[in-house]
Each structure stands twice: as C-alpha cells, then as structure tokens.
Amino acid sequence: MLASLLLFATEAVRAVDAPSPDRIGPAWSDPRNPIVRIFHGERLDLWSLRAPKTVQIPAPPAGANTDEAITPIDRFIADRLASHRLILSPTADRRTLIRRLTFDLTGLPPTPEEIDRFVCDPAPDAYARLVERLLQSPRYGEHQARLWLDVIRYSDSNGFDWDEFRPKAWRFRDYVVRAFNSDKPFDRFILEQLAGDELVSGAPRDSAEQDAWIATGFLRLGPHDNAAPLFNEQERSRAELMADLVETTGGAFLGLTLSCSRCHDHKYDPLSQADHFRMRAFFEPVRFADDLALDLAPDQDSIRARQQRHDETLHGLEQQRDALMKGVRQRLRADLKSKLSEEEQRQLAVSLPANAAADAVKAQKELQKRVEPPDAAVRKALAPEDLVRVKELDGAIAANQRERPAFTTGLLMTDADGAPPVTRILHQGRHQDPRDAVEPGFPSALDPNPASIETPRNPKTRGRRLTLARWIASEKNPLTARVFVNRIWQQHFGTGLVATPNDFGFAGTPPSHPELLDWLAQEFIRTGWSVKQLHRLSVLSSTYRQQSFGTAGNSVDPDNTLLWRQNPHRLAAEPLRDALLATSGQLLLRAGGPPAWPELPPEVLQANPAFLDDNETKTKGWYPSPAADQPVRSVYLVQKRTVRVPFMETFDLPENSTSCARRTTSTVAPQALSLLNSPLAIEAAQAFATRVEREAGLDTEARIRHAFRLALLREPGAQELSRCSPLLKQHGLPALCRALLNLNEFVYVD
Predict the structure, then answer these.
(1) Is 172 helix (H, G, I), strand (E, B) or coil?
(2) What is the pTM of this model?
(3) Which of 78, 113, 132, 525 has the most CB within a 10 Å radius?
C-alpha cells in the first residue's frame, strides 16, 4: 500500500541525496521519515510538494477568435477551453486595454492624453511599448509594493492596546518600492528580507548593502506588545514573535499554513508540530537592532568625528554655566544644611562603608536631597548679569544638542550575541510548557535531518536565517516560484491559478491549470526570477487582453475558471482613493519618506483610548499632516493596526496583523454613502470641478466633455450630454463631478 502511495517519488524535490544509513531521506522514498510514521504513509500525494513538471507547451489553438498573437500562456488556456468547446473572447478595445493595464501595473488611471496617444498609435508594437512604459514608471514599484506589503503584514505601528507608532518602519516600505522598481531578482529579494544582515560584513559600504540591512525590517513587521515587560510577560511576547515569523514566512513564501501546526501535527498537510519549531529554530537567535547605524561606512566615521566635536563644545559650555552657578549653589546648599539638626548634619557628614545597612544609605540620600537647592532657586539667586549669561549658555547648549549629528537608524533585526537559546516544542503551543528540543530544519517530508548551517558574511550572526533563505529561494524548492507566480496571476486575472494564495495544501484549492502554473514557475526561474518579465508574460497574452463581457461560456463555466473572458473587478481601497485624487488633480506624487497622516473624524479620535492617553514620545496619538501633504498615494499613508482610515476600511482595506493573501470585495451600502458623502469624496468633487473650470473654460458642453474625459476616460454620448447639461445648470459643476465619481464605470475596471 505504501508503495502505491509513493509512486511520484522521482518527481518530488529532494533536499538531500539518496538516503544513506546516517541520513533519513524524503518521505516519498524513505519509510524511516517521521512524516511517514506520523501519518502512516498517507498525505504524501500533495501536488505542491512535487517538483514542477517539465511541460510541453500545447500547439497553437485552431481558429482562435483573437486579433492578437498567441503566446505560450494562451496555448495553455486555449487548450483547456477547447476541451470544453470554448475559445478565447475577442480582444478588448484600446481604451479598455490601457485603462485595465495602467491600473493593474501602476494602481492609477491613465490620463486622457495617454489614452489618445495609444488609441491613435497605428504601430503593431504599440501595446508592447505601453507595457514597457508602465513597467519603467516609478508608479509601478509603488503599486507592486502595496500588494506585497499586504502579504507580509506591513504596519507603521505595533498593535495591541496602545498601538505605538513605529517612526522608522517607512524605510522598509521604501526598500520594497525600490526593489520592485529596479526589478530586483525575487530570489535575492527573499534573501534580503530573511537574512539581509547576514549578507553584509560590518557597516554597509554602498546602497545595496544598506538595503540588505533595511530589508530585515520584514522580521520586525509583526505585532509587538511593548507593555509585556511591565507584566513580566516577556516569554509570552517572545513566543508570539517567533510564531509570527514562522507563520508569515510559511504563508508568504511557501504557501504553507504553518499556523496549523503550532499546537499539534497538521490536520491536513504532511507537516508535523516539530516542523513548526524546526522552522522557528532558524529565527531563534534574533534580536531587535534599532540601534544599528544604516549610514555608509565612511559616513559613519565622519558622523562619529562630528559628534566628538559637538560633545567637546557641549562640555565646554556646560563647564562655563556650572562655574557661574557654582558659588550661588554652594551658598544655598550651606544655608539649607544649617537648617538641619545637629544629628542630621552628623549623619550627612558620615562616610558610609560599602556594606552599610540599606536604611542608613536611604536616610543619607534623603538628607542629600534636602540640602541640594533646585536649579530654579539657584538661577533666581544669581546676579542679573550672570543670569543673562546663563540663559545665553542654555540657548547655546540646546542648539548644540539639536544640531548634534545622529546616525540613521531603522526598524531592523539581527542576531544576539552568544549561543542561541535551545528551541523546544511547546506542548499545545503554550510557551509555559516546553518539551523536546529541536534543531533548525526544513519540512520533514522533504528533509527531516538537521539543516547544515551556512557560514554568513557577517561574523556577528549565526547563519541560520541565511540557510533558511537559501533553501526557500532555491530553484529546487517546489513551492516558492509557484507561490509567487500565482500571486502575479491573481493580480492580473482576479483569481490565482490556485485560488488560495497562502495555502497550497490539501485544504486549499488545487490549481485550475496545473501545467500552466508549473510552466510559469519554471519560466520565472529561467528568466532570473524577474518580476517584470513575469508581468510581461501575463499582460502580453491574448488571455489578458480579452474583453470582460459575453455569455459564450456561462452555461459551461459560469465562474470563468477556464478564462474564456477577462474578469472585471472593482478598484481596491488604495487605487480608488488614488484615482479620486488623480482625477481631481490633487494627487501629490512623491518619492517615499515618513508616512502622511490624514484627518480622522472626531468620533474615531474620541473612541480610541490610545489617542486619549498619549505619552511624551507622542507615539500613541494621531497627528494629521499639514493639509498640503495629505493627498499622497495611499501606499504612503500611515498604516496603523488598530485604526484604519474610515473611507479605506469601507472599501475592504484588510486588517494588517497577519498576512493578507487576497483582498475581499464586499458590496455594502456604506460604500455608496462614503463615495457620495465622505469628506474625501466631497473635497475631491470640488477640486475636480475647479480643475474642469480651469482647463475647459466657460462653455457648458466643453465642461461636460472634459469632465467625462477626466473621470471616465471617454467622450460622453449624446444622451449623456443632454442629461448632464440641465444637471450642471441647476446644481452646478461640483454636483456633476460628484455624480461622475460615483458611477460604477469609475469604480470598476472594465
């Protein structure tokens, strides 16, 4: 029976060579493997743990109803369609294509001028050139970063009760934008996020090494309870950090639901509880590294030298101030001392031995406080000319402290000094009940042996995370490439080839087109893990360029799983907000930096206890940015865990404490009300009207036509003109603009 269950052994990825007496082999070939023992030889036919097959691209479809060239993707899709007597739908019109493509690649609408250029371009490569232009746009990296930040639970705050702001988290967000804009190979992207500090020896020497350090912010993005030490709950907090790292890494990169094996052996997949903690052992040495300087090595030397000069100047200023106040302080101290009783003066004068009783030490300290004059009293007793000079010195000291150069820091992680703690399996996931020790290791079904730890470049780290990262980013790993190409497919077609992007297990959805998924994964690796090339493969296909309407396949495939047409979809929260700002002319394009804080309604501010009980560092409250700085792209808005911008939340902005594999799309009444009556919508409509007035002049028809071109990216029809004219005259241009921004045509792509 076991032999029949292991027929695909030759196709399974082997993390090690053939079994030997001292090494246990993969579950498909070695009955000693613990997964075989735990699950009695079952669960081993999970498709995602099999090596991607070398796939033969199907022949071009006969009689395809498309005006465009047939790509390998189209051959796979058309081959499946043919088996159901279906064909690809016709190509969408050019206006639809540029709008769809621009939103999909940049998260923003095209301008009317861009549409005109594309629609009127007769060159056969017009569409391909449009794809290249959008991939080279800085807006591409911003949009792609927003999608990845969903997956890796990015936030600018800690979460928990007080949800403290993380002032330096934005450096990681900007790193992700840069990575996608530069088309950083995805395997390198994985290495840097999991182990960037282990790829660098010492202070960063260039911007690439600097980014490797910043990338370790991935390890810090999860929720963190800063208050845990106040309640002696450090162990609980540490266990939560470790669980978050294991589960986010498993879901984001591998499509494995490792959270299901934290407390017991997995209920569906060939994963044991030990596998969860073997993975945890890779992260066991980590510590927060917010104190590490990110400045380049030569700059760090310069900063230290300047700091030393500032400190020397500061010391001189403080000495001058102390000298002016010394005499007065001594006189006041003597006066206070004279008011003590003789016994108290005697106690004050006694030189206590090192082993003096605690009560005696405490009593003497209390007496010392009583004879020390307050700084304000000393200043009040100064001569007028001395007081003037002391105040001058105060100002110079404050200026020195403000101007003292500081190192650039970030939200970082690295390894702690010393031997890493032993990782133990936690019985039922409870940190108070540690049991058997485990070594760092990969999923036991693939390789149950302890991992061979790589030597890192950084001598201060252990090499554990680098070992894990190299295994995840290996072209031999059966999961990583499949998981990411599926995310890109989901981005362009609404649903992934695997509809459960973070779950490639038995409880997830099997791939709708397994051969295509394997071909895309292999092609992704073959082209150097290029994300931009993966986008090209997708959007240059005729499958992507199909029109989104039609009924040809409704009776056979009502959910469009076979992709006989394109899928229309509503704009997600960020593209919708950004489209409102872009259309109204308000959108502020900027290159990263600290997040912008939008206004919040009073009822939200008054309902949050953290806002009402801020601290001296002002990390709990909500501090809106100047109005002129707020209309940035949504990726640059502050991302708090316990408070989301109401407009964005209404349009399904996800909760960001855990990985979000796919945005939900709800249709509820508050969405229509928000788009019609929210402060953002009203302000956008007013700004839109001002823009139309400025650009179209006074003519009524010209205003209507220009408003349509800006909002809907097309000319109005005759009936639309006749209906909009009295609306404009009776209720004004802002009302017309507000109506256009509330149309489904504005909110939906296609």
Answers:
(1) helix
(2) 0.91
(3) 78
